[in-house]
Design brief:
The chain has 415 residues and is an alpha/beta fold. It has two domains: 163 residues, Glycogen Phosphorylase B (Rossmann fold); 182 residues, 3-Layer(aba) Sandwich (Rossmann fold), CATH 3.40.50. 45% of the residues lie in helices and 15% in strands. Helix 10 crosses helix 15. The protein starts with a strand and ends in a 6-residue tail after the last helix.
Length: 415
Amino acid sequence: MKVAFLLNKFPLLSETFVLNQITGLIDRGCAVDVYVRGRVREEKVHADVERYGLSAVDLHQDRLAPDEKLGLLAHTLKTALWRGRSTGLLGACLRKVRPGRVHDALVELYPAAALLERGPYSIVHAHYGINGNWATALRSLGGSRAKVVTTFHDGFDLSAYLALHGRDAYRPVFEHGDLILPISEAVQRRLLDLGCPASKLAVHRVGVDLRRFPAQAPAPRTDGIVRICSVARLVEMKGVEHGIRAVARLLREGAAVEYRIAGDGPLQAELRALISELGVEEKVRLLGWQEMREVERLLAESDVFLAPSVTDAQGSQEGIPTVLMEAMANRMPVVSTAYSGIPELVRDGVDGYLTAEADVEAIADRLRRLAESPAQRRAMGEKGREQVEALHDIERLNDRLLDRYRALARGESGR
């Protein structure tokens, strides 16, 4: 089966959930091409990107010079002439290509031609609602006859984008998409409220590779220091400021704790200044961004995972952070926020604790409880591992995803 993924950017260190889907489908015999709306140039990439030889086709043409655009338009017309007769792309080109409208025509037609040239695909899988809209538009232009699958995440999908474009922003994918996969029941409820047909919806959770985490609990450390960690992009929504303040409160009480934060982002300087202001530089460290193996090492060396997510100024919320699943797979108790889909993963008082947003006192209290009780840390860690095995095993989820694709290809719903 040939599958096209339509993404905002690729590869992103922060989107291992997409990488895990792509590599899992390749392992199951699928041919996968990746299309993006903009290139990413990060100094570090996950090892699997290189191991699988993954790259992406950039469908965004704003950075091209005028002569490059003309050349690309000529290539688009050639593709339409030789391969687009049966799909309607040739007719779309004849309607849309006009003098003075080269850029506009390219924006619409080149992506459709790119899919047509490398296809045919059985499935076009878009991550994020805006790309689902785009996938249905490309199909209508003749770029593909593939079934369109769209994964909806929380965050930008269901907050800032809707604030800009209104409740009907996703009408195209609701009406013309074939299968819509919210990552949580919370996202599914929101999509139903926005008018998505229930007949097209199926919750398909983000998964983690449990093989990367030890099958047995590690031996307890004996140095008496409780190591807390976070892995997060340093942006407002991750709530790292509140984690730093909570740990600083414990340190003032004399608790034997350390806090390490893996991640990079626009708030790095501000958070570094906060750490200095609170006088906790020796015990609270910003590590910068870490590759997958470095994150795994950090989790293995830590005792408690902290994810104090908040709603940001634009109204965006987290979905269910993948790294929460990874921490729980590593048998770590977690402290996080009771919002969005997080309570579907973290059961308060069972495999971790949930607090209200930005409640530094409550965060400190839950961290204190865990720091003072190795037995509770072990018990919650085991429950967390069981929860991730039941809901977020990437092997089971990728098997199910391929089953959905095959059902769609047979003309069934895929639900």
